[in-house]
Write a structure and sequence with these properties.
Number of strands: 0
Shape: globular
Length: about 400
C-alpha cells in the first residue's frame, strides 16, 4: 500500500528510481505501475517526444517486456496438453462460459426490441439504456488522454492516422504488453538517436545501445528473428566503441544474437556468436585472475553499482556460465548436421526416386508482428495486461547480472 501512495504523490524522478528498483528485483507489475506514472507526468510536462522522456520510456519498455514474459510463463502452464485432465476440463468449462456470454450479448438487441413491445418496466428500461450507451459509443469514440494533456494529440500530423488511433483505443485488449513495450522502446530509440546526433556523448550512446538490445529482445519474443538480429547487431556495434573487448555487456549481446540466429535456423551464425560470447568470458576470467582492483575500470563500475560485488564471486559465476554456452554451441552443430541429413534424404530418397527441391520453411518472419510506433503515446500509458508468446532464456539473463 505504501508503494501505491508513493506512486500517486511522487515526482517523476522519484518514480523513475522506484520503478528501476522494482525492475532490478523483477517485480514487473510494481515497476510498470511506477514507470507508467513517471512517463505520464514527464509527457504532460515536456511533451511526448521530449528529450527528458527518453530514459523513462527505456525503463518502462523493459518493465513491460518483463511483465509480458512473466504473464506468458504463468499462462503457458495452463495451455492444453500441459496440465492434467481436471485442468483441461476446467478450461473447456471456461470456454463454454465465454461462448454463453457471447451468445447473450448477441441477443441483446433482439431482446431489447421484444422488451420494448411488451413494455416490461425493469428489463425494458435496462436494455434500452444499454442500446443508448452502445449507440453513443459507436457514434462518438471516447479517447482517454494522459493526465495533463488536452484531447488533441500532440505530435500527430496525419489526420487519418489519428482517426485510426482513436478507433483502436476503443478496443485496448488488442494491444498487449509486448506491443506496448515495442512502441515505447522505439520512441525511446528515436529520442536517444536525436540526442546522440546532437553530441550527447558516451552516456547517450550507452542508453541507445541498451534500447536496441531491448528492442531486439522484444522482436525475439515476437518471433521476428531477422528484426531481432538487426537491432542486436546495432547494439553490438555501439558497445564495441564504448567498452573493453572483454566486457560482459558485449558477451551478453553476442549470446542474444546467437540465440536469435538459432531460432531463425541460421546455425553457422549462431555458433559464431555463441563462441564469441564464450571467448569473451574466458578472457574476462583471465583478466580478473590477474587484475588490480584499483586499475580495472570494469571492476570499479561493478563495485559502484553493487556494494556486495567481489572478484571471486564474478569469476565463479563466469565459470558456471561457460558450460551452458558450450552446450548451446554443440546444440547448434547438431541441428546443422540434422538439417543437412534431412535435405540429403529428401534429395536422394532410399527408393532412388527424386522428389525435387526440398522445401525448408524459414522460421524468420519478414514482417514484425508489432505495429509501427506513433509519436502519440497516450495508449502506452493506458495499458492492458495481456500475455504474449515468448520465453526468456535463463542463461542470457545471468550473463549480465
Amino acid at each position: 500500500m505504501a508503494d501505491v501512495a508513493d506512486v500517486s504523490t511522487s515526482s517523476p524522478v522519484e518514480l523513475l528510481s522506484v520503478g528501476r528498483r522494482h525492475l532490478a528485483v523483477r517485480d514487473y507489475s510494481a515497476a510498470v505501475e511506477a514507470l507508467t506514472k513517471a512517463c505520464e507526468l514527464l509527457a504532460a510536462e515536456h511533451g511526448d517526444t521530449a528529450d527528458q522522456c527518453a530514459e523513462a520510456y527505456l525503463w518502462y519498455g523493459k518493465a513491460l517486456l518483463g511483465l509480458s514474459r512473466e504473464e506468458s510463463g504463468v499462462l503457458g502452464d495452463g495451455m492444453p496438453g500441459t496440465g492434467n485432465a481436471d485442468e483441461d476440463e476446467n478450461g473447456d468449462q471456461e470456454d463454454n462460459d465465454e461462448e454463453q456470454n457471447e451468445d447473450g450479448e448477441e441477443g441483446t438487441e433482439a431482446e431489447a426490441k421484444m422488451e420494448t413491445q411488451d413494455d416490461s418496466a425493469d428489463s425494458g428500461t435496462e436494455v434500452e439504456k444499454t442500446e443508448a450507451e452502445s449507440t453513443t459509443k459507436d457514434d462518438e469514440p471516447t479517447v482517454v488522454a494522459p493526465s495533463g494533456t488536452d484531447d488533441e494529440k500532440p505530435g500527430t500530423s496525419n489526420g487519418d492516422a489519428m482517426d485510426e488511433s482513436m478507433a483502436n483505443l476503443d478496443n485496448e485488449d488488442d494491444v498487449d504488453n509486448l506491443q506496448l513495450a515495442w512502441e515505447t522502446l522505439d520512441l525511446a530509440r528515436s529520442i536517444l538517436k536525436r540526442r546522440v546526433e546532437a553530441g550527447g556523448g558516451d552516456a547517450a550512446r550507452t542508453l541507445l545501445a541498451d534500447v536496441h538490445l531491448a528492442l531486439g529482445e522484444v522482436a525475439l519474443e515476437s518471433e521476428t528473428y531477422d528484426k531481432a538480429v538487426t537491432d542486436m547487431m546495432t547494439c553490438l556495434e555501439i558497445q564495441k566503441e564504448l567498452y573493453s573487448s572483454d566486457d560482459r555487456c558485449i558477451a551478453e549481446t553476442h549470446y542474444q544474437i546467437g540465440l536469435a540466429n538459432s531460432l531463425a535456423s541460421n546455425f553457422e551464425d549462431a555458433v559464431t556468436h555463441f563462441k564469441n560470447a564464450a571467448n569473451i568470458l574466458e578472457s574476462r576470467i583471465k583478466a580478473l585472475e590477474n587484475a588490480n582492483p584499483k586499475d580495472d575500470a570494469t571492476i570499479k563500475k561493478y563495485k559502484l553499482n553493487d556494494p556486495f560485488y567481489s572478484i571471486e564471486a564474478e569469476i565463479k559465476e563466469l565459470k558456471e556460465l561457460l558450460p551452458e554456452i558450450q552446450e548451446k554451441i554443440q546444440d547448434m552443430i547438431d541441428c546443422k548436421a540434422e538439417t543437412i541429413k534431412r535435405v540429403r534424404e529428401t534429395l536422394c530418397p532410399a527408393n532412388g526416386e527424386g522428389s525435387g527441391e526440398p522445401s525448408i520453411a524459414s522460421s524468420t518472419s519478414s514482417e514484425p508482428k508489432v505495429k509501427p510506433a506513433a509519436s502519440d503515446i497516450s495508449h502506452l500509458i493506458k495499458r492492458k495486461r495481456k500475455a504474449s508468446d515468448g520465453e526468456a532464456d535463463s542463461a542470457s539473463k545471468r550473463v549480465n547480472t
